[in-house]
Automatic annotation (TrEMBL):
<dbReference type="InterPro" id="IPR007791">
    <property type="entry name" value="DjlA_N"/>
</dbReference>
<protein>
    <submittedName>
        <fullName>TerB family tellurite resistance protein</fullName>
    </submittedName>
</protein>
<dbReference type="InterPro" id="IPR029024">
    <property type="entry name" value="TerB-like"/>
</dbReference>
<feature type="domain" description="Co-chaperone DjlA N-terminal">
    <location>
        <begin position="99"/>
        <end position="222"/>
    </location>
</feature>
<dbReference type="Pfam" id="PF05099">
    <property type="entry name" value="TerB"/>
</dbReference>
Length: 233
């Protein structure tokens, strides 16, 4: 007579549990986010839950609240709500495009828009960032207006000029989501615009230093990068 085999794990899992804890989830919001497990943009539901002790599958006693969590609609993974702070791919692209546009304008405003080579470098940088309709005429008009505004107005109580405020407004939301190499690359691109028509002017160096600070790069690294940018390779 063959020995009776023991039930496998699958069979054990199908047995009704005498008691346990079940969570009832309620959706309170939804949207799109960058799912860490999927590695891309996905829909999500923000959910809160209530735990209940169950007896023979029936809820009998409350056991407190669960969550809130962010649930991916694709992989059903649960994540802390902090995951929503990371921009989606679409949002990140928009932040980067706006940052490069503002950086290019700031450098042009500081150095003047009379240089065709600097304008060409700025247009190329903005187009590479995704604004394919950028033109030298459009950049010139906005940069001249920004330079005039900076010249007319003084800084506020914190000493910030309108130009510095524009840079921080564009770069502060982006910097936490850029790796160190990405932040350095953006500063070098700005330096390339400033150097397109010759050495840095004092105003250009001030703007580049402000860009480095807004990108949360250490001052020593900013100095090294600006020096490296003007050294022929």
């Amino acid at each position: 007579m063959l020995p009776r085999s023991r039930p496998g794990r699958a069979a054990e899992d199908r047995r009704p549990r005498v008691c346990g804890v079940r969570t009832h989830w309620t959706t309170v919001a939804d949207g799109e986010f960058h799912c860490p497990d999927c590695g891309g943009d996905r829909n999500y539901q923000r959910r809160t839950g209530r735990r209940r002790l169950t007896l023979l599958g029936l809820p009998v006693l409350p056991r407190g609240e669960a969550g809130p969590v962010v649930e991916c609609a694709s992989c059903a993974g649960h994540f802390p709500t902090e995951v929503l702070a990371r921009p989606t791919t679409t949002r990140f692209s928009a932040l980067l495009r706006d940052a490069v546009h503002t950086v290019a304008l700031a450098v042009l405003a500081a150095g003047g828009t009379g240089s065709r080579t600097a304008l060409a470098a700025a247009v190329e940088a903005v187009r590479d960032a995704g604004d394919e309709e950028c033109t030298a005429e459009r950049l010139t008009a906005v940069a001249d207006a920004l330079a005039a505004d900076t010249g007319r107005r003084t800084g506020g109580e914190d000493g910030a000029t309108p130009l510095a405020a524009e840079l921080h407004e564009a770069l502060d939301p982006l910097a936490p989501h850029l790796a160190g190499l990405g932040r350095a690359s953006l500063l070098l691109r700005a330096a390339g615009i400033a150097l397109a028509d010759g050495p840095y002017t004092p105003a250009e160096r001030d703007v580049l230093t402000t860009i480095g600070a807004a990108l949360t790069l250490p001052r020593e690294e900013v100095t090294d990068l600006l020096t490296a940018a003007r050294t022929p390779s």
